[in-house]
């Protein structure tokens, strides 16, 4: 099915915020919810965690919503869900996948879910991912709060002379809420590489030198777009493997999925409790 020109994110003449508003209109129609309150993006290893957030009241295939595409990564779900947040009467919009920068669809597509969440009424977004850990004490299956990030994509979702302040990009109040739920949570700095190849040992050493604790291929561009949209941001990484040069074994995506399955209950309960308290 061809995409109308005014909804084609790849067309420079398209207003990406208009596409987000069109997507939010479809979500309202399909879910029967005038607004959603919190959005969750489930990254690699987090798929099962979404099931513990609450009762799914409606599901929508990504391909039925303007600007979205089917899941491109194994272990991700190509549907979005409208989920009841306990008995609060509030709703969470749960994205089962994201568009990664390495897919080549452009930064607008990467951050479209964030902008759609804002257009759907969300004021908070939880960004999750699977990543490589740079600290030896973080075993596979360890969730880590993102305190800050380093964006090594050499790109930005912000177009034109819009100068967005990224101080406290990852909302301190939300990190405090997460630690109330799970006092054992540690935190660190996430470094986004372009991907899709894994980092070399030399690149991992560089990430450590510049202040990184976690390495991956997502999240930072979305967080920037969320700040532009005035959303509060909670970032949580699931350490699925030790990064190259720290790990003694070759890296693989299967390892990522396996670690996520092993940590699904802890991560799901963490998300459910945090979302309820937000």
Automatic annotation (TrEMBL):
Gene3D superfamilies: Nucleoside phosphorylase domain. Residues 38-275 form the Nucleoside phosphorylase domain. One of its GO terms (cellular component) is cytoplasm. Pfam families: PNP_UDP_1. SUPFAM superfamilies: Purine and uridine phosphorylases (SSF53167). Transmembrane segments: none annotated. Belongs to the PNP/MTAP phosphorylase family. NCBIfam families: PNPH-PUNA-XAPA, PRK08202.1, PUNP. Its EC number is 2.4.2.1. It comes from the Bacteria. It comes from Nostocoides japonicum T1-X7. The lineage of its organism: Bacteria, Bacillati, Actinomycetota, Actinomycetes, Micrococcales. Homotrimer. A purine D-ribonucleoside binds at residues 199, 241. InterPro entries: Nucleoside_phosphorylase_d (IPR000845), Nucleoside_phosphorylase_sf (IPR035994), PUNP (IPR011269), Purine_phosphorylase (IPR011268). The purine nucleoside phosphorylases catalyze the phosphorolytic breakdown of the N-glycosidic bond in the beta-(deoxy)ribonucleoside molecules, with the formation of the corresponding free purine bases and pentose-1-phosphate. Cleaves guanosine, inosine, 2'-deoxyguanosine and 2'-deoxyinosine. This is Purine nucleoside phosphorylase. GO terms for molecular function: purine-nucleoside phosphorylase activity. GO terms for biological process: nucleoside metabolic process. It is an enzyme of class 2 (transferase). Keywords: Glycosyltransferase, Transferase.
């Amino acid at each position: 099915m061809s995409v109308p020109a005014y909804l084609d994110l790849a067309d420079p003449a398209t207003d990406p915020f208009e596409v987000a508003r069109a997507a939010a209109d479809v979500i309202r129609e399909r879910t029967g919810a005038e607004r959603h309150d919190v959005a969750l993006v489930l990254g690699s290893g987090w798929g099962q965690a979404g099931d513990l957030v609450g009762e799914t009241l409606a599901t929508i295939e990504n391909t039925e919503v303007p600007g979205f595409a089917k899941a491109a990564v194994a272990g991700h779900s190509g549907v979005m869900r409208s989920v009841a947040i306990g008995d609060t009467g509030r709703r969470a919009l749960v994205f089962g996948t994201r568009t990664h920068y390495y897919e080549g669809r452009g930064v607008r597509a990467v951050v479209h879910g964030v902008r759609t969440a804002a257009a759907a009424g969300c004021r908070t977004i939880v960004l999750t991912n699977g990543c490589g850990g740079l600290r030896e004490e973080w075993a596979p299956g360890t969730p880590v709060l993102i305190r800050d990030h380093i964006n090594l994509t050499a790109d930005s979702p912000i177009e034109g002379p819009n100068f967005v302040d990224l101080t406290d990009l990852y909302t301190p109040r939300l990190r405090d809420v997460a630690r109330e739920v799970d006092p054992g949570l540690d935190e660190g700095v996430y470094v986004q590489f372009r991907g899709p190849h894994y980092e070399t040992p030399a690149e991992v050493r560089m990430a450590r030198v510049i202040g990184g604790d976690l390495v991956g291929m997502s999240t930072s561009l979305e967080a920037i777009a969320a700040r532009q949209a005035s959303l509060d941001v909670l970032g949580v990484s699931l350490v699925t493997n030790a990064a190259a040069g720290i790990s003694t074994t070759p890296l693989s995506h299967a390892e990522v999925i396996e670690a996520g399955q092993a940590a699904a209950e802890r991560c799901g309960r963490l998300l459910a409790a945090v979302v309820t308290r937000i």
